[in-house]
Automatic annotation (TrEMBL):
The lineage of its organism: Bacteria, Pseudomonadati, Bacteroidota, Cytophagia, Cytophagales. Keywords: Methyltransferase, Transferase. InterPro entries: SAM-dependent_MTases_sf. The keyword 4Fe-4S does not apply. GO terms for molecular function: methyltransferase activity. GO terms for biological process: methylation. It comes from Dyadobacter fermentans. This is SAM-dependent methyltransferase. The keyword ATP-binding does not apply. Transmembrane segments: none annotated. It comes from the Bacteria.
Amino acid sequence: MIEEKREKWLVSYPDDGNSVCFEMEDMSFWYQHRNGCLVEAMKANGFPKDFLDIGGGNGITALAMQNAGYNVTLVEPYATGIENARKRGIRSTIQNTLEEYVAKVNGTAPAAGFFDVMEHISDDKSFLENINRLLTPDGRIMLTVPAFQSLWSENDVQLGHFRRYTLEQLSALLAEAGFKVTYATYFFSLVWAPMWFARVLPEKFGIKKDNTPEKKRNEHMAGRPATARLLRRLLGWEVNAIRNKTRIPFGTSCLIVAQKTRAL
């Protein structure tokens, strides 16, 4: 597990996180569905063409946005992620930490996103305050994080998570950091019950499972394209809901769009 102290916060992420994910992302129903939801959210909420993907890892999300016509710059601290993103064809990449990047481009970014990043950061409020400093006065953000502490399991621990969230918690945190939420929803609704039964319930009986690369591939249906396609079809209504800016009442992930309302 990589644990790095960056200014006020600690970042926790598995040593092999980028390399393991790179092997399965293109085949994963989870990444593909998340990307479809994010691109539709960008379109529905009028995001500008220039967009920063903060902590974008191997570039799987940046690629989806780039293919949708956005000018995405991937900002990623780890060299492995940058190398993999370039292999994928991401045209603009910057290897840097958020705080170092903010010092260079303070107050000039029109929009930014961070997707399943904030749960890896000990002081999420300080992280959001740095995002605020990165943006123009009317800058926009979009983010995703894992939902509901009731789904917390050893899997979260091994992935380097500090917490899971609700939309209400996120809205309050964003308000403290100078943002107003303009759209909020849960998604991956059909995954909630299988996740609880597969991860949470066994731990109530003292059974904990190592989050091995093989387990990750199986959960993401990587290598089982027919099953992955079926799951994406079953979840397809969520893409339409997000396109129409409808709130989905529950799921294993949160998605929020917000606008900067004051500088810090």
